Amino acid sequence: MKSAVAISALSMLAGAEAAETVLGAYIFHRHGDRTPKALAPTNLTSLGYEQVYTSGSYYRSRYLSGDSKIRGINEDTVKLSQLAITSPVDNVLQNSAMGFLQGLYPPVQTVQTLANGQSVQAPMDGYQLIPVNTVSTGAGSEDSSWLQDASSCQNAKSSSNAYFDSKDYTDLSSSTKDFYSSIVPSINHVISDDQVNFKNAYVVYDILNVASIHNSSIPNSKVLTNSTFTQLRSLANAHEWGLAYNASDNMRAVAGMQLAGEVLKYMNDIISSNGTKKFAAQFGAYATFLSFFGLADLEKASTNFTGVVDYASSMVFELFTDADASSGFPGADDLQVRFLFHNGTASNTSEPAVYPLFGGSADAVSWNDFQTNLDKFAIKTTEQWCTKCGNSTGTCAAYAPKDNGANTQQKSSSNGISPAIGGVIGAFVTLAVVLGLLAAFMLVGGFRLVSKKALKNGAAGGSSVEPKA
């Protein structure tokens, strides 16, 4: 009897798990291995290409053909209306997106037979052409030593720069001088000796990290022990976290705010299209990960969320339901969102893990709660971005405050004197001043006015202005 009950319970559990339906997913992905920032322009390496391709292959097995397959998504031949792939205008990021897509939708051998009986084989064994759309911010991210340099948000730059005046920064800058001096020879003049310090913590780490992956030898290599690399990484993490997020001034996390707005928009597109939209992937830089981690309170789930993520890392937002979705798209109250993250290249042997959002403990949140929490900091419109950033030129000119001249004129009108009346009064005042000056000139110079009649009766050549006796 107990065995029968156990079997029945297991059957019910299996049924409940099988009832889960994934309706869509949004992935934010870092680029693969690249050349160092200090030697711009940066380029995606063969290793980086392989990393993002492997990641794309994993997400293919998860969302296109596996147990978590997105309902209705095309498995083999891409249907472009189901996808939204984006990247800033950046060589490394755009190429990473293309490599990822080759893993997500590999070539399909397509042979077309023409009317005359000729068979035409698609180039590159049916390589699938999938466009990568560009996003407006983050251009040139991988050529910037600090990624806020790739942002035109004035208030975000000011907020990030405030980190350099903080006690955390000054303490670490002072205490690590000897450490950075010891590794100067290893930098090998890629940057100047006086730049090898905590102020450039990520750049220094990046140079040596790339060298450790690709160079067969590094000068002064005896100093570069595992302990040294651990310290370099730890200092770079502290530096970049301080620039990307601050709990008391989250304006520096503008990249995470924009990502939140983009995730919300796409999730709403999935819902409003009744599932026609299915899968989105955006490629971006590590600062966006850090900014979003801070805004979503993910450091409460793990301190690992306060460090720079590895190449080809990915975070995922899954939209799913436990309700019966066989008869149509579920209502908003039946929708849930799950957050997953993987540090480094995701694969079938190293899959993303689920983490609780917003400082909670649940593996998933309702769609309504997800939307409410993201709305607290998400930037969803250009006007919102311009207002938060304090920008007033270019695109933001349309949302800038009215100029002072217009306000002054409006204020004058509200005092009861119209511009027209004010002009008349001004003209009379000017005339009075001119007449006053003329009278003073005549009095001091001894001149007087003579009528035309008197002039006519007077001596020829006489002046109409005569000196006084």
Automatic annotation (TrEMBL):
Keywords (alphabetical) are: Membrane, Signal, Transmembrane, Transmembrane helix
- Give the signal peptide, or none: 1-18
Domain of life of the organism in this record?
Eukaryota
SUPFAM superfamilies, per the entry: Phosphoglycerate mutase-like (SSF53254)
TM annotation in the entry: 420-447
Supply one GO molecular-function term.
Answer: phosphatase activity
Taking the record's annotation, the residue ranges forming a coiled coil are none
The record's listing under InterPro entries reads: His_Pase_clade-2, His_PPase_superfam, Histidine_acid_phosphatase
Q: Does the keyword Transmembrane apply?
A: yes
Q: Which family does it belong to?
A: Belongs to the histidine acid phosphatase family.
What is the protein name stated in its UniProt record? Phosphoglycerate mutase-like protein
